[in-house]
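Module 6 notes. Inverse folding takes a fixed backbone as the condition and produces residue identities as the prediction. Think of it as a translation problem where the source language is geometry and the target language is the twenty amino acids. Below is one complete input and output pair. Work through it position by position during the lab.
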């Protein structure tokens, strides 16, 4: 019997005689999930783009077959015309792309872009299409679907944009969904809900799924089959239970060894006092004005951050975790002076022990330049933060040039130094960002932030785009730099396993407020707040026998009025942040 999708001996090359992908084969039945796992640059995404017929112009399919069975007919996707392929693309076969900011048009509203799928492939009224889009927005976790429908991409966070991409790919209920790192930019609670949504849609429609991911926990919760790729070749392939429980190839074992996991519960450790602070944020709130869905209505006031206090000790790492839209990145921008806090909030920065702290938002132009040299940021989306028109050498030397550091030769030497520091080769200096994989671009972003040898590094999801082995290397690198050079990190993340490894203290945020704060050993051993418990329950484990507890996730990640009385938010009656044990703060009624 012919499989629903068959990829046989697929070989893809560019100008060089050596192929990038060689003899890749796999098959997939209706209703099944195939996970393609491997390091960044291993050929996972390129293989999937070949299925959808959207390879780069320079790519050459040198051999192989890609057959899919639609409406009882076997179709060769390598032989059909482009007009016929357009009828299949988006309707029968959909793809969730890894970088939503790159994939969505900046000139069109998000709701209209999602609605376009139904306009092209369904004969429905505009009213019905909008209702279907709003219903899909609810399913992927938008708290305000109407506002999301009327928003432009630049008005939304990375996690919110990823939800929109997922809604776009799934709204037509395709026969095959190709999900390229679909949950990379999502917090773990939304990730759990989206994975549950994909499973529900599979049950309803018999949809087949190809899941491209570096998260082995996601693989354990979703996959029926696993294909492990490295350098364009299949290293191991088989039933998910067999591959995950007993990997045979050394490369697969290496991936499992590098996967971060939340540690087992440990004894309580009293945190040290915060005597030497490099960053002290007090009474931080931030209110934004957003356009209303209707021009007849007044602007909407959005309280992104509410009464947040954060203290970062010198040489330490303070992690801020929470769902997309919780205010984490806003706090990071306020810490760097890129956003002004509401009246009454202050941000104090102290470059060295014993020095007089400076107020970040009251600096003169000259002092601000000195501060910016000492405090740098690694952004969440490496594609949009790297100029596509600049070679890597120019990208890395630009900060040095702006601040007048070194000669031209010395700047190039520093660029080579930081490039090698993040595990990339000096021969890459003359390339452009588009020549790199997503994980490599993230490493370039980290390298650029390190060129000025800063004292404070604000990391906004710095490892979210990295496969597990490179992520492990980057975390090793960040820890080594912090420990040897006294660097301090404000670390924004939704990955609790990463946070448990690198953080000295963790602040959990929900809708602009800190709901729990403690050292990681305390937080993971004795979580008190229902939202913190939901985050931990939603963290995918690379053990196929330990699936995500969706009931626990739904309980803590749901509306705050559904929580127990001690934690419930009731209108303006907000519980205070109380110290339940030394260094363990929880927002609750006493």
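Target side of the pair, the amino acids:
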């Amino acid at each position: 019997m012919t499989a629903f999708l068959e990829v046989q001996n697929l070989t893809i090359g560019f100008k060089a005689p050596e192929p990038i992908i060689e003899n890749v084969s796999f098959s997939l039945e209706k209703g099944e999930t195939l996970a393609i796992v491997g390091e960044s640059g291993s050929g996972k995404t390129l293989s999937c783009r070949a299925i959808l017929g959207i390879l780069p112009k320079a790519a050459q399919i040198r051999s192989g077959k890609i057959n899919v069975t639609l409406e009882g007919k076997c179709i060769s996707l390598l032989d059909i015309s482009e007009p016929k392929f357009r009828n299949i693309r988006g309707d029968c076969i959909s793809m969730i792309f890894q970088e939503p900011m790159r994939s969505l048009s900046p000139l069109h509203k998000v709701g209209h872009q999602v609605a376009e799928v139904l306009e092209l492939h369904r004969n429905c009224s505009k009213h019905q299409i909008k209702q279907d889009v709003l219903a899909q927005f609810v399913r992927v976790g938008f708290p305000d679907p109407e506002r999301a429908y009327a928003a432009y991409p630049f008005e939304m966070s990375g996690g919110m944009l990823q939800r929109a991409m997922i809604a776009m790919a799934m709204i037509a209920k395709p026969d095959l969904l190709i999900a390229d790192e679909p949950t990379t930019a999502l917090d773990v609670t939304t990730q759990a809900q989206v994975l549950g949504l994909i499973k529900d849609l599979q049950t309803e429609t018999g949809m087949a799924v190809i899941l491209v991911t570096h998260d082995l926990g996601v693989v354990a919760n979703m996959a029926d089959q696993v294909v492990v790729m490295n350098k364009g070749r299949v290293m191991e392939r088989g039933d998910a239970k067999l591959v995950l429980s007993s990997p045979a190839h050394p490369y697969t074992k290496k991936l499992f060894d590098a996967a971060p996991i939340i540690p087992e519960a440990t004894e309580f450790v009293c945190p040290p006092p915060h005597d030497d602070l490099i960053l002290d944020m007090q009474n931080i709130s931030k209110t934004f004005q957003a356009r209303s869905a209707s021009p007849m209505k007044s602007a909407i006031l959005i309280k992104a951050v509410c009464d947040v206090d954060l203290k970062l000790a010198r040489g330490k790492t303070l992690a801020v975790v929470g769902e997309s839209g919780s205010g984490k990145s806003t706090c990071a921008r306020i810490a760097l002076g890129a956003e002004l806090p509401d009246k009454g909030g202050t941000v104090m920065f102290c470059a060295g022990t014993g020095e007089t702290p400076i107020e970040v938002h009251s600096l003169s132009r000259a002092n601000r330049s000195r501060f910016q040299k000492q405090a740098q940021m690694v952004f969440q989306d490496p594609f949009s933060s790297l100029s596509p028109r600049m070679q890597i050498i120019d990208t890395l030397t630009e900060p040095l040039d702006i601040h007048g550091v070194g000669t031209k030769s010395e700047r190039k030497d520093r660029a080579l130094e930081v490039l090698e520091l993040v595990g990339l080769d000096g021969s890459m200096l003359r390339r452009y960002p588009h020549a790199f994989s997503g994980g490599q671009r993230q490493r370039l972003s980290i390298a650029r932030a390190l060129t000025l040898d800063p004292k404070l590094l604000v990391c906004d999801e710095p490892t979210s785009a990295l496969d597990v082995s490179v992520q492990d290397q980057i975390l090793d690198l960040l820890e080594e730099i912090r420990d040897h050079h006294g660097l301090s990190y404000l670390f924004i993340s939704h990955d609790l396993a990463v946070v448990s490894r690198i953080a000295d203290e963790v602040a959990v945020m929900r809708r602009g407020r800190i709901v729990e704060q403690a050292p990681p050993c305390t937080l993971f051993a004795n979580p008190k707040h229902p939202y913190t418990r939901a985050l931990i329950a939603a963290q995918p484990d690379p053990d196929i026998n330990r699936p995500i507890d969706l009931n626990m996730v739904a309980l803590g990640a749901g509306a705050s009025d559904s929580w127990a009385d001690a934690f419930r938010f009731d209108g303006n009656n907000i519980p205070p942040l109380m110290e339940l044990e030394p260094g363990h703060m929880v927002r609750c009624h006493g």
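Reference fact for the lab report: The chain has two domains: 5-257, 277-526.
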